[in-house]
Design brief:
Structural class: alpha+beta
Number of helices: 7
CATH class of the largest domain: Alpha Beta
Strand content: 25-35%
Number of strands: 17
Helix content: 25-40%
CATH superfamily of the largest domain: ATP-grasp fold, B domain
Largest sheet: 8 strands, antiparallel
Radius of gyration: 19 Å
Order of helices and strands: EEEEEHEHEEEHEEEEEHHEEEHH
CATH architecture of the largest domain: 2-Layer Sandwich
Length: 292
Amino acid sequence: MNAITTTNIKELKKLFSGKVRDIYEIDPDQWLIVTTDRISAFDVVFNEGIPGKGRVLNRISNKWFSKMTMLPNHLISTNPANELPYLANYPGIAERSVIVKKVNRLPVECVVRGHLFGSVYSEYKAGGTAGGLLLPSGLKLAQELPEPIFTPADKAESGHDENIDHDRFFEVVGEKTGRQIIDYAIAIYIKARDIMKGLGIILADTKFEFGIDKDGTLILVDEVLTPDSSRYWDGDSFKVGESPRSYDKQFLRDYLNTLKWDKTPPPPPLPSEIIDKTREKYLSILNTIEKI
């Protein structure tokens, strides 16, 4: 199976090509979002893709969108070939695509954390905080937090997203909208966390994106609870103080941390065994999520 890392749908105008997704304009109110097989780590996109990754992410995201009914989302169609029959001319694209509402996407990453890991673990070790929020002393790597916390970040189109405090978050999105986002983000995380716990998986953290539609309604956009946007850990082997066995990009990050690479472009080539193992992890979490 070959990886689909570029798209060129001639019938549509391409608006944007991100780290993973390409966005096309269907009409003034609708977009086609194509989830490619591109993979990024440390905000650098690799030359090699992960075969089938876009299909996996699309299926996982669509599954979670269908479960999170506490607020509207941007989906119009999860079967875009029905509305756009010319997609049949582009093998593999329809199964990686959705038709969505055109929205004003808010320029923030809305991160909810249930465990102490990643960038906030370094912050905690340095000053006892996570995303600027004071945490109890004595917490260890990967330990579950007393309650989930919301740690926003600036949304960077390229380069690194940067953590911001709640005051800056409210400046960007407005306090009323910000309060809504925090409530929804934590509620979605808790619901997904509890579902996955029943399947033997720990949802350690995740990030969401929100937008405002033309009616002024807050809606959930982009992707939801995929292994690109979330940390999924194996519950059976989990131990506080250790880097958990994961079903997400952490495997790739851990490999890259063994290299003499400064985390800036150009990226190092990915060996076939790393590509294959990464693909296995994505397929494994897909198989679990499709049980819900």
